Q: What sequence folds into this?
């Protein structure tokens, strides 16, 4: 897992996608993770209030619902972001748990895609940034 920013080219391509987190003045730091041969960027966020996340400090952590598929390596900045040391250590020490947690989220999301008619799948489909990608 590495820390990255997403590039302006990524945000330009997905500018109309409201579930993809976008802040021009302070971009989100993301970790990259590979699952089933595909690379994803999961943002580090504050004020997360749902179960689809890996929590680091309080209500901060990695928000799986706002993960995006990295289809082009040029969408990852060459910059080296810095986050809180305690938060970064917790992420590093829990790589396995993060991999398992995000993989589980991906399975639930894919299951929801196949079962769109079920009301209980509405939220996972509505609020996931993955809806803009061919997963």
A:
């Amino acid at each position: 897992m590495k820390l990255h920013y997403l590039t302006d080219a990524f945000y330009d391509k997905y500018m109309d996608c409201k579930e993809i987190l976008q802040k021009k003045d302070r971009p989100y730091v993301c970790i990259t993770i590979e699952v089933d041969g595909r690379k994803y960027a999961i943002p580090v966020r504050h004020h997360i209030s749902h179960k689809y996340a890996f929590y680091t400090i309080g209500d901060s952590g990695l928000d799986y619902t706002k993960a995006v598929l990295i289809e082009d390596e040029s969408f990852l900045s060459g910059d080296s972001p810095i986050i809180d040391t305690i938060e970064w250590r917790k992420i590093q020490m829990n790589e396995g748990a993060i991999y398992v947690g995000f993989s589980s989220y991906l399975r639930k999301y894919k299951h929801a895609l196949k079962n769109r008619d079920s009301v209980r799948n509405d939220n996972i489909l509505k609020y996931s940034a993955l809806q803009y990608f061919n997963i």
User: Anything to note?
Assistant: The longest strand covers residues 38-45. The chain is about 30% helix and 20% strand. The chain has a mean pLDDT of 93.
